[in-house]
Amino acid sequence: MHSNMEEKRLKQLIALSEKTLLSDLELSSIDPGDPVRVDETPEGWKLLGAGNYACVFMNHDYPDIAVKVYAPGRVGWESECEVYRLIGNHPAYSACYYAGEHNGFYYLILRRLNGKTLYRCIIEGVPIPGRVITDIDQALDYARSRGLHPHDVHGKNVMVTDGRGLVVDVSDFLKEEPCSMWEDLKRAYNRIYMPFMSKNPVPVPEWVMNGVRKGYRFMRHSSVFGRSS
Asked: Which residues form the Protein kinase domain (predicted)?
């Protein structure tokens, strides 16, 4: 994995993760279509987010680091390790410092990305500059140049920080089947956000965003969703 983290500090973080997080962690994944459920977060750790296969934690003594833990029985850890190996060092992506297994949990130690997801920006009425879209486009092109296939890139998996765009989740970048999520998001940004919301962004209730998300998922799986540009 990456060597741009002090070896002593990394060893301390590995030991801390295995002793205080992974030894006492209680999480379960009943259905791969639903987020992993964290039954108890060990003391000293904060849950940053839960996906369908893994959860991400932060220790208060290491605010610049995220520890991603895969739920028992859920695949993807090996693929994500390979994705980070291929990406290498790029400002729009996290970096993987270590990958290991402890107490039945497979986990990654990652550089933590700070900011707001595009999804959260819409809910809070935070402006999304065009530079963010350009940054993410360029980051995805870079991933393709490294032999990867950007997949599952949507509003909850991309982030704004200091006016720049970041890609948060790369776990599905080895999947070769086509994925139009990012192109669909850009289409919505150009057709709806820019003309109607960009000059005076206002908060959009989360229940509205959830309705949009569910409607989008329905249309993606039906013939009524157009692919015209």
From this structure: 42-229
Pick the CATH number of 116-217 from 1.10.3470, 1.10.357, 3.30.160, 1.10.510: 1.10.510
Q: How many CB atoms lie within 10 A of CB 155?
A: 23
Amino acid at 140: L
Q: Which pTM was predicted?
A: 0.85
**The CATH fold of domain 7-111:** Phosphorylase Kinase; domain 1 (3.30.200)
Residue written as tokens 């993760």? 17
Tokens 């208060």 sit on residue: 60
- Residue 212: its H or E element: helix 206-220
Q: Where are the domains of the chain?
A: 7-111, 116-217
The 10s digit of each residue's pLDDT in 84-115 is: 999 999 999 999 999 999 999 999 999 999 99
Question: To which H or E segment does residue 182 belong?
Answer: helix 181-188
Among candidates 112, 216, 113, which has minimal Cα distance to 159?
Answer: 113
Helix runs in 27-180, H state only: 77-87, 118-124, 130-145
